[in-house]
DNA sequence: TTGCTTCAACATTCTTTGCACCCT
DNA sequence: AAGGGTGCTTTGAATGTTGAAGCA
């Protein structure tokens, strides 16, 4: 176990480093910008200032970016390295000068002052824009962080389902509050005493218990009745679930920014050192005396098991139910018995197969499940380490680091006087310090509204039904709630809309919705399976069937909630500033329409902003030129007038420049860009191909922007030399223009293949195949001929060489050099005599003969020595296909395998 | 102090159908 | 001499994005 922990630690370390580096990269822009701005200064100052002025802010991020990421070339050019080198160069120069004349040094100094023409203040500001790469990496970090937090939320949620935790909570609960589990018509008001009790008994702490899995962290928080806001919110959810209330664990996913160069400050976090430090130091509270003196028996037992067995939390669950019976309170024992002992059987009734993560060890796991669990574990460890670390850091100055953002007065429904405890130090009259609203619970109250409602319950801050306050609280922390996700049944659902009143403000800060929706899709199903209509998994059979019956004629909770959130989206209040309308999903101002946008129909006016009429976004239509619509496979209906006309940008055509002024006013009106809207279009109606003739445009070609643009009855053949093939077969064809290439400021058409009548397609393809085969054959022949030519050349040279050797070296006793390529007389003579008639086939034949001769005889008499080529001295080079045969005397022959 | 507007600077997108000259 | 390859005058305006300044 220890080793496993170590391994896990290293893994999480690695993960943290990796993501940290990514973050550093994402944040690099800001820091590097500063760096550059600073380091430009000394460069312009010449050598006078040697040390670059280091900005006072030496953040870890910057440090990291310097260390972990290779310097980019631009940085190297103007960065400190360059400065140092410059200095060194200068110094060398200086030394040289010293060597020549000792007095120059001072001159040199003064010269540098002369160079320093521009004072620091007048240095033009260099604002480095974020590059596409920076944006991409920021988005990547954003997504990864989002997934990590999502995974963490799921783990917390599964911990809330833990029957031991639930049972222990119930064991603490006063008997009168247990009645809540029997309430069928639940209202938010009915929850007040329960929340109040929870608030009084569980308190926020600023330090951490160390790195613990959610199950253990919750158990620990339960035991000591204090914990992080996250743990307490989770405990409240566990309590609701223990009481058979349908509830969710809701969390704001406080992710790193989507766009680079935005400093990421985790909500309510004292310092931001990385995306993992999302700790949430809260209002420091004195640990209150427990009103209920008895401790959780089950946890004492469990701790015992833990120490004696050293097993995982999961394994202990099996023995837990028997322990529950030892509870002294009979009612509690009954409830426990009911809720906990039902647990093993509940999986039978449970609709959601994954709702009991705790039992997974007993089920055969699929490979994907195992992998997913591992990923979850990793995500958990990573986030747990990060947060705990920051908590440890903030632990020292717990009071000072406690939540300090001013907050608007929030709804405190019950026990406001008691909750305004002395430990809440207010800095302003009328303001209350509240904990960071990162985590809370949602309980489904069937008697709220007509159809029932998910009620926001922040047990930590004692806020009930304060959904409209969350945004203000988050805003008070100078953060925005971009993602609010509700977790239940191992699933998750984005409920940001419920808490966000100004969606247009956060929409741009969220990741692209397609990706996010696809991530959430499977989780949504799990979530709605656990909460939508069907009462929670621990509910008994009767209630479950009742709910099922209800579901058969009542929309599910999930779908009702979807409608609710959708309605919120559609009834968002009008923004008060004009800029907000620029990309607002619901509303538009004519002022902010782009060149190619138009209001159609122009109305209804839904309001006014600074005197400008506000129209629904649905009225905004895109207009395009005829050509652009053509590219989309649409054409403008006949007799349609342009919906909008734009003045053609003045592009004076070189030679006519001087004449342009004369008839500018007259031509302009004629050459306006005519734009048409979608409502003025019809499907493309191109002339049909008749009698094998392809209808062409005035340039004798067919513009193939897409398949839609092909005249009916024609096909686009893209194979090379198609035009030649068609021409040879005397088939009518037209070059296919597929687009433009922009070079030197001009557009050049790009042609690819041809357009022919469909009936010729097969013929042409066949002809092309034949052609291709023929070309291949020709190429092969050409290659072979070339090979033979080279062989002939080689053999000729060898023969010549041999002749020269025979003639002039006969009398000499010199040895044949090792690397001289030799060949026996038979071969050479054969090659020579055959080379004369230049018959390629016979040459080839002789080559083969030569090859076999070499293979079989392998004995070439040279003078007294007869070469013997033994097999073991052979070597074959696969690249050149050359076989090298060697004689013991050192003589070698290379043979090419044909 | 905060939020909004305006402006400037830079980045990105859209634009959209040759020709003269040289070499083989 | 014909035909293929290569390189020009290396656009430029509109729009989108971001930061800074000014103002209420």
Task: Provide a compact summary of the structure.
By secondary structure, the protein is an alpha+beta fold.
3D architecture notes:
With 898 residues, the protein is of the alpha+beta class. It folds into 6 domains: 2-129, no CATH class; 136-404 and 414-570, Transglutaminase-like (Coagulation Factor XIII, Chain A, domain 2), CATH 3.90.260; 578-621, Anthopleurin-A; 626-680, no CATH class; 686-772, Alpha-Beta Plaits (2-Layer Sandwich), CATH 3.30.70; 815-896, no CATH class. It is built from 29 helices and 26 strands. A 6-stranded antiparallel beta sheet has the order 6-5-4-3-7-8. Strands 18-20-21-19 form a 4-stranded mixed beta sheet. The chain is flat and about 120 Å long. The protein binds a DNA duplex (24 and 24 nucleotides) through residues 127, 129-130, 132, 261, 576-579, 594-595, 627, 649-651, 654, 699, 701, 703, 737, 739-740, 742-749.
């Amino acid at each position: 176990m220890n080793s496993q922990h170590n391994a896990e630690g290293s893994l999480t370390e690695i993960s943290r480093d990796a993501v940290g580096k990514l973050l550093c990269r994402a944040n690099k822009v800001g820091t590097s910008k500063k760096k550059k701005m600073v380091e430009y200064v000394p460069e312009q100052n010449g050598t006078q200032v040697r040390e670059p002025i280091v900005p006072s802010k030496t953040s870890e991020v910057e440090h990291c970016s310097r260390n972990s990421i290779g310097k980019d070339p631009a940085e190297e050019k103007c960065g400190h390295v360059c400065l140092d080198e410059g200095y060194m160069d200068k110094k060398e120069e200086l030394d040289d000068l010293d060597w020549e004349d000792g007095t120059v040094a001072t001159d040199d100094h003064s010269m540098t002052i002369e160079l320093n023409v521009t004072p620091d203040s007048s240095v033009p500001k260099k604002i480095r824009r974020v590059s596409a790469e920076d944006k991409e990496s920021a988005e990547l970090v954003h997504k990864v962080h989002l997934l990590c937090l999502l995974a963490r939320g799921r783990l917390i949620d599964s911990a809330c389902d833990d029957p031991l935790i639930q049972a222990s909570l119930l064991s603490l609960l006063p008997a009168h509050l247990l009645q809540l589990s029997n309430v069928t018509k639940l209202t938010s008001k009915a929850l007040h005493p329960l929340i109040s009790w929870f608030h009084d008994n569980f308190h926020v702490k600023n330090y951490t218990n160390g790195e613990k899995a959610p199950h253990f962290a919750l158990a620990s928080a339960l035991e000591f009745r204090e914990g992080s806001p996250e743990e307490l919110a989770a405990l409240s959810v566990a309590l609701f679930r223990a009481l058979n209330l349908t509830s969710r664990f809701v969390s704001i996913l406080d992710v790193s920014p989507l766009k680079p160069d935005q400093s990421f400050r985790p909500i309510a976090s004292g310092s931001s050192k990385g995306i993992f430090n999302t700790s949430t130091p809260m209002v420091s509270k004195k640990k209150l005396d427990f009103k209920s003196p008895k401790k959780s028996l089950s946890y004492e037992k469990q701790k015992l098991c833990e120490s004696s067995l050293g097993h995982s939390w999961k394994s202990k669950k099996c023995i837990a139910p028997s322990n529950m019976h030892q509870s002294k309170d009979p009612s509690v024992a009954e409830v426990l018995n009911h809720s906990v002992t039902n647990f093993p059987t509940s999986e039978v009734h449970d609709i959601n197969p994954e709702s009991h993560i705790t039992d997974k060890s007993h089920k055969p796991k699929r490979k994907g499940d195992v992998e997913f669990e591992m990923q979850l574990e990793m995500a958990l460890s990573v986030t747990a380490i990060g947060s705990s670390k920051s908590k440890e850091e903030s632990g020292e100055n717990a009071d000072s680091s406690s939540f300090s953002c001013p907050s608007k007065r929030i709804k405190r429904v019950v026990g406001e006087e008691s909750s305004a405890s002395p430990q809440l130090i207010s800095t302003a009259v009328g303001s209350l310090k509240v904990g960071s609203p990162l985590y809370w619970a949602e309980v489904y109250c069937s008697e709220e509204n007509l159809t029932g409602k998910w009620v926001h319950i922040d047990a930590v801050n004692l806020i009930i039904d304060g959904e409209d306050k969350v945004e203000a609280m988050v805003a008070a922390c100078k953060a925005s709630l971009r993602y609010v996700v509700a977790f239940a049944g191992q699933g998750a659902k984005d409920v940001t809309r419920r808490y966000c009143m100004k969606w247009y403000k956060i929409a741009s800060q969220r990741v692209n919705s397609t990706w996010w929706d696809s991530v959430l899709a499977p989780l949504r199903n799990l979530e709605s399976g656990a909460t939508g209509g069907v009462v929670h998994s621990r509910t008994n059979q009767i209630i479950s069937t009742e709910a099922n019956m209800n579901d058969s004629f009542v929309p599910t909770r999930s779908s009702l909630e979807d409608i609710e959130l959708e309605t919120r989206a559609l009834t968002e209040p009008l923004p008060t500033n004009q800029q907000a309308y620029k990309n607002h999903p619901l509303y538009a101002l004519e002022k902010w329409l782009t060149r190619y946008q138009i209001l159609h129909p122009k109305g209804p006016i839904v309001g006014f902003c600074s005197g400008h009429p506000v129209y629904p976004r649905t009225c905004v239509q895109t207009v395009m030129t005829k050509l652009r619509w053509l590219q989309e496979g649409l054409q403008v209906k006949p007799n349609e007038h342009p919906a909008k006309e734009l003045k053609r940008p003045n592009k004076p055509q070189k030679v006519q420049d001087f004449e342009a002024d004369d008839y500018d006013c007259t031509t302009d009106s004629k050459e306006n860009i005519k734009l048409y809207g979608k409502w003025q279009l019809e499907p493309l109606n191109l002339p049909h191909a008749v009698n094998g003739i392809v209808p062409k445009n005035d340039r004798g070609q067919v513009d193939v922007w897409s398949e839609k643009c092909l005249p009916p009855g024609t096909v686009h053949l893209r194979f090379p030399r198609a035009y030649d093939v068609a021409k040879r077969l005397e088939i009518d064809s037209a070059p296919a223009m597929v687009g433009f290439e922009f070079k030197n400021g001009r557009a050049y058409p790009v042609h690819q293949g041809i357009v022919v009548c469909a009936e010729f397609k097969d013929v042409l393809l066949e002809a092309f195949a034949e052609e291709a085969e023929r070309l291949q054959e020709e190429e092969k022949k050409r290659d072979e001929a070339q090979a033979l030519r080279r062989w002939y050349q080689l053999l000729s040279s060898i023969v010549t060489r041999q002749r020269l050797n025979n003639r002039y070296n006969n009398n000499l006793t010199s040895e044949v050099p090792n690397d001289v390529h030799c060949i026996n007389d038979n071969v050479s003579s054969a090659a020579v005599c055959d080379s004369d008639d230049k018959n390629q086939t016979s040459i080839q034949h002789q080559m083969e003969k030569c090859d076999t001769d070499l293979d079989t005889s392998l004995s070439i008499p040279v003078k007294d020595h007869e070469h013997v080529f033994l097999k073991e001295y052979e070597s074959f080079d696969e690249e050149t296909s050359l076989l090298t045969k060697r004689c013991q005397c050192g003589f070698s022959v290379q043979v090419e395998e044909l």
